[in-house]
Amino acid sequence: MSKPKLLNDAQMREFIANGFISLKADFPKEFHQTIYDKTKQVFDNGGNPGNNVLPSVPELKQIFDHPTIHGALQSVLGEGYYMHPHRHCHVNPPGSPGQGLHKDSWNRRRHRTRWGMAFYYPQDTPVELGPTGIVPGSHVDNQRPPRDEHALTGEAGTVVIVHYDLWHRGMPNKGEMVRYMQKFLFTRLNEPTRPDWDCGSRDFPEENENGRSRMYRSLWNWHCGNSPTLKPASDEQIADWIGQLSDEDETAAFNAAYALGEAGEPAIQPLIDAMKSDSEYEARNATYGLAAMGKPAVQPLIRELSDPRPQTRRFAVETLGDIGLPAAEAVPEMAELTADEDGSIRRAAAEALGIAGQKTLDAAKPIASLLADSDEWTRRNASHALMRLGPNARPAEDALRDALNDGNRYVRANSMQALARIGTPKANAAALDFLMASRWCPITNRHSTF
């Protein structure tokens, strides 16, 4: 892989505010045409290859190894980011009516960038050909955004890096040729402790025209590894912001949440109380403020892990995970939730332990116990969480080898990657054996079986 061409400050600010950035893998046009032709041939020979699109069209790897694309992914998701085994070729044939706006649905709605996607277009894609439509800035919105749609048009070789939660859709294809878009999923493995891009200044501009500057500043600080910004506030201000957490205007609710996060300790109990609201909307907005506050909110959140209401336990453990490394002291209490009777809480506990517990060996065994869980999504989260632990997943090595035979494809792939990151001779041998057994032949199809 070539040396990455990292994003600059302006590009990172663009990504934080808009949730996407468009780039170009500047190979010769003939190279992209080769990918287009091979993609068409794969479809003709056996239909959509789904997750096997990369071995079916191996030239795609060169797109993501390109210095500009690799550099952007590293800038946004950190060194050692993971190309997730889920990827898909989206086909938009002539005359298609297009899709409705939607978010993909594999993770809980958090603002910090731990999941991302890349959209690659092997052909020139004008608006007539039905590109992907996105709503800039909507990656933080839980409600369908009312703002204008933006079409991701561009020349062959255009790659758009997007926040996983960006609202998007396939637009109607009014042209005369098939439009392909290769979607690849990526995840962050290492929590940010410093900027991963070509950072010239660790300061973020104070104001933004759309009223979300507090949120953007918090996200910028997190990407930089900076301590959260704290600004004292009066009791009256805190009470007013708490009231705005339920505002139907999400911009007002987010502004209030991040203002409360900046207010520090005096805002903790009001935010905890709001997190216990019967309204999931208000409760979720409260968690954004607690996560933005960071370390001061950890002990109060730990106390809520034993709340009798499942929603409160789930929001508490999700928020501790979102806080990340400063919540490492919560690992023992979060580990107890791996035995919770509620599957959504076990899933959240696995995710949180894999983020907050990255610097300790103590998280591995509790997470490993979930590799045998009856709930498929819990096993997915557990295998991904152990991957995030890297060498600190050693206590889970035996459980990960067993998980290579799991009935779910993502548990298998994540477990293999987790073993590779553990890196012991025994773990490496298990990962290599799995890869050898699952080797894919890119030139085998129904017309050429051997």
Main features:
450 residues, five-stranded antiparallel β-sheet, 19 helices, alpha+beta, single chain, 8 strands
The end-to-end span amounts to: 32 Å
Q: How would a crystallographer describe the biggest sheet? A: 5 strands, antiparallel
Beta-strand content estimate: 5-15%
Kindly report the average pLDDT value.
95
Q: SSE string, helix = H, strand = E? A: HEHHHHEEEEEEEHHHHHHHHHHHHHH
Structural class: alpha+beta
Residue stretches low in confidence (pLDDT < 50, at least 5 long) are none
- The rough form would be described as globular
Range of helix content: 40-55%
Instruction: Tell me the radius of gyration.
Output: 22 Å
Helix run count: 19
Strand order of the largest sheet: 1-6-3-8-2
What does this structure look like?
The chain has 19 helices and 8 strands. The protein is of the alpha+beta class. Helices cover about 45% and strands about 10% of the residues. The radius of gyration is 22 Å and the shape is globular.
